[in-house]
Amino acid sequence: EVQLQASGGGRVQPGGSLRLSCAASGFTFEDYAMSWFRQAPGKEREGVACIHTNAGSTDYADSVKGRFTITRDNAKNTVYLQMNSLKPEDEAVYYCHAAGHILGSPTDYWGQGTQVTVSS
């Protein structure tokens, strides 16, 4: 059974930091690109950050560049999102996502969300 278990959300003041974690199981983690998405109330889900396989190259949404860092630990089957200098507009439910292939066919998985609240 595939599982993506996100954790680390919570309430933080503007300017604060949080570290999200997503523990994966049920698939070959190192073969999958891992991403974080977020969805604020009334808005569409948007990609925040992605880390690719092996070499671990990363991509970020312009809105979080320089503030967020995505990393992965293939030994622990876990992807992280370090969020610094948080702003009220970062408030959303954050989801982790895995994208890869099975027998040449694209496959992806979603985790449950974790709420990030940025408020003074």
Report on the architecture of this protein.
- The chain has 120 residues and is mostly beta strands.
- Helix content is 0%, strand content 55%.
- It has strands at 3-7, 10-12, 18-25, 33-39, 46-51, 58-60, 68-73, 78-83, 92-102, 105-110, 114-118.
- The strands form two sheets. Strands 2, 4, 5, 6, 9, 10 and 11 form a seven-stranded mixed sheet that branches. A four-stranded antiparallel sheet has the order 1-3-8-7, with no helix packed on it.
- The chain starts with a strand and ends with a strand.
- The model has no long low-confidence stretch (mean pLDDT 95).
Q: What's the arrangement of secondary structure elements?
A:
Layout (H helix, E strand, L loop, with lengths): L2 E5 L2 E3 L5 E8 L7 E7 L6 E6 L6 E3 L7 E6 L4 E6 L8 E11 L2 E6 L3 E5 L2
Parallel strand pairs: 2-11
Antiparallel strand pairs: 1-3, 3-8, 4-5, 4-9, 5-6, 7-8, 9-10, 9-11
Features:
120 residues, mainly beta, 7-stranded mixed sheet, 4-stranded antiparallel sheet, 55% strand
Low-pLDDT stretches are none
Largest sheet: 7 strands, mixed
Give the helices and strands as they follow along the chain.
EEEEEEEEEEE
Question: What is the 3D form?
Answer: globular
Tally of DSSP helical segments: 0
**What structural class is derived from the secondary structure elements?**
mainly beta
Q: Please indicate the percent range of residues in DSSP E strands (runs of 2 or more).
A: over 45%
On the 0 to 100 scale, the average pLDDT is 95
Rg, rounded, reads 14 Å
Report the strand count. Answer: 11
For the termini, the CA-CA separation is: 40 Å
State the helical fraction.
under 10%
